[in-house]
Amino acid sequence: MNPTRFDYIVVGGGSAGCVLAARLSEDPTVSVALLEAGPVDSSPVIHCPAGLALMSRMSSFSQGLQTVPQPGLNGRQGYQPRGRTLGGSSSTNAMVYIRGQHADYDHWAAMGNPGWAWRDVLPYFLKAEHNERLQDEWHAQGGPLNVADLQSPNPFTQRFVEAGVQAGLPYNPDFNGVTQEGVGIYQVTHRNGERFSAAKAYLTPNLSRPNLQVMTQVTAEKIVLENGAARQVEVLQDGVRRTLTAKREIVVSGGAFQSPALLMRSGIGPGAQLQAMGIATLRDLPGVGENLHDHPDAVLCADAPEHTELFGLSLAGAGNMLRGIWQWRQQRQGMLTTNFAEGGGFFKTDAALAEPNIQLHFVIAKLVDHGRQMQLGHGCSLHVCLLQPQSRGSVRLASPDATIAPLIDPNFLSHPEDMAQLLKGVRAGQRILAQPALSAVSQEWAASAQATTDAQLEQWIRQHADTIYHPVGTCRMGQDAMAVVDPQLRVHGVPGLRVVDASVMPRVVSGNTNAPTIMLAEKAADLIRQAA
User: Fold this and answer.
1) Which candidate in 38, 65, 98, 287 could, as Cys together with 80 as Cys, close a disulfide (CB 3.0–4.6 Å)?
2) pLDDT of 135-177, one tens digit each?
3) Which of 139, 295, 307, 470 is catalytic?
4) Domain 1-48+81-146+197-294+395-406+471-532, CATH class in plain words
């Protein structure tokens, strides 16, 4: 018979949830339940790095969410895929290992969050990391999360690095070291030619622990309060409703969309919104679901018809793919060990800026509509991403029903400064594509190349920009009236309840958000143990 009482219940088996379940269950005297709405992470599409190309078309372990229509994107609805399996988005993402800028975390601390400055969080990045190449004051070996150089980087990626240097950017062999600025090849969360998700790093090695119970295909409907404290989670599993009890704490780790939605379904959130949904307000917290922001991203595509080493639809490409499948199945080597977004860089659009404000991801395929549209021939893509957007949006309930997706409104490009900076970033991306290392073998698509005036390029951006999958902020950490959790990640005014995931970030980090989310959970595990 499955137990229903645990010391800790972690709601959400994504990156943060996997870390918490593993770390909390290190103590054999406590019991831990991990609840995940999706299935186990057993599909070879997850473990083969190039399986990433299929993720946007597979609903079995990925939520293909949509935003509400975005005025800043010419009224288009944006696509918001999130992982829905053990490992969460670390089982479906592009595996890029980036921490962000040191100043990001100092800014968190300055926003009223002592204990979250760079000097405070670096030890947790190091605790998590096993870096195959680097071991110094910035990098560690021996942690659960394997970080590696790409096993078989595509030769075309080096052309991008050369073009970046030709455009005036310094070569940077380590974006997580002294400085982020420059161009280079990303390190990735891989091991032995496979994706190394948070589930693989933290959960899989510890599934045999008798004090850890992992439940998949479980939807958390709401959290139940007793005398104002969080004590139970009502769940739906195989069509049957159950109630699970936490003797110590409930930790919500559903991500920037699902964590605020669960709080609101539980009566914790903006009172007027809850009442409009017919939900009794148990704790009026106006910041729940607010402060949603994300990195807006515009993708420049280029044709390179002669370079069949790039992924694409052709007879040669089909032959390469068949060979790649054989190599990966037999040896875990070859072209299918790619993460597609192999190269990248960081730069400032204005020399007066203290830190880079633009990130690049160089993709060895023509990526259109998040890979949902197949393109004939071969080519490459250059993502241009704004690192510190000022636009803010929200997540709100569409229904009290947990199976109905919330209303997601990133409010992209609503702040004029976001467009101004992104436009400069796209111009810089075009200059990189125009350098000899790339222009000799590829040609930028006409839609962006022919946008010669700022007004034309702005329209191109509004018609093509979307997320690069880094939503944060909807359960913001802080001590002001709009904060949802305190610096210990405890929900204000609700004993026994914490939120631990990217939703607590008061401001998005300057880069990919997976490594920072794992760091958050490592630190949270210590905070929870100290409280006990």
Assistant:
1) 65
2) 999 999 999 999 999 999 999 999 999 999 999 999 999 999 9
3) 470
4) alpha beta
